[in-house]
Amino acid sequence: MNEINKNKEAWNLLSKEHYFNFKKQLEENKTLLNDNIVKELGNIRFKSLIHLQCNIGQDTISLARMGLGKVVGVDLSDENIFYANKLKEDFNMEKMEFIESDVLEFGDKHNDLYDIVFTSEGVLGWLPDLKKWAKVVRGLLKDDGFFYVYDSHPILHIFDDRLIAEKREFVLKYDYFNAKADLGYEIGGYAAGVKHAENYWWNHSLSDIVNALIEAGLEIEYLHEFDTLFWDNGGMTHVGRSLYQYPEFRNKLPMSYSIKAKVRK
Ligand SMILES: C[S@@+](CC[C@H](N)C(=O)[O-])C[C@H]1O[C@@H](n2cnc3c(N)ncnc32)[C@H](O)[C@@H]1O
User: How does pLDDT run across 115-169, given as a tens digit for each residue?
Assistant: First the structure.
């Protein structure tokens, strides 16, 4: 699919800068995971985990530091996987494995099963087909395992983000239902400079996300919504590790969500 290839080229442009930035952060901090994720994951010691859309493995290393057993990261970008393997060496994570793959094609080529399938912070919008994605998630889970996602809220992505950042104005710009691919020309800016590259992003409604998981055979344990974001969208207040908020929109606007689901018996 042309859009996926374009996204791969775009993400490849950020890998090297992400590596130097995240390596430094990992040297200074035990975890780069935001407070909500750490709290919701709870005790995951000795569990096996696969991290989908792992970027250069910065959060995979933070997850491994929670005492996991086997840890595998998967990402579309070959440059991300190259730098993830460098991070693995830098931090002596011998047991960790990184695999280059489109997550939507991953189910066909990987037969191992995991206690936890994890994905977070800027992920589902890069995937055009959530039904296919949810089947991959189910196929990777042991029968007593669980799936966890933490991502930006689709409601946030229907507004013109520049106007929110610059003027705190909420002006409808994008579709919530049946959104087609949004073609963007800039990528990055959160851990690397902004790069100019064609990229494609799909806003999925919350019901499409939940229903894809249910259709694939999962049972939702919870869906949580948060009035905080995991990046500073401009002028936000730092309210926890990797969590930001517009104080004036506290309790007013969902900015992120998490879902925990298990295999339906
Ligand atoms: C915003 S990052 C999310 C990871 C991490 N939370 C971060 O902040 O860097 C999105 C990741 O999704 C990956 N990605 C995009 N499309 C993908 C696909 N079809 N299959 C696998 N990974 C994909 C990108 O290469 C990128 O590393």
Answer: 999 999 999 999 999 999 999 999 999 999 999 999 999 999 999 988 998 899 9
Whether the predicted model's global pTM rises above the 0.90 cut:
yes
Burial class (CB in 10 A: 0-12, 13-18, 19+), 22: buried
For residue 105, report the phi and psi dihedrals to the nearest 5 degrees. -100, 0
* Percent of the chain's residues with pLDDT above 90: 92
DSSP conformation class of 247: G
Atom 9 of ligand 1, residue of closest alpha carbon? 55
At 1 the pLDDT is 67
Domains assigned to the chain = 2-263 (3.40.50.150)
Hey, whose CA ends up nearest to atom 19 of ligand 1?
102
**Is any ligand 1 atom within 6 A of the Cβ of residue 55?**
yes
123 lines ligand 1 (CB under 6 A): yes
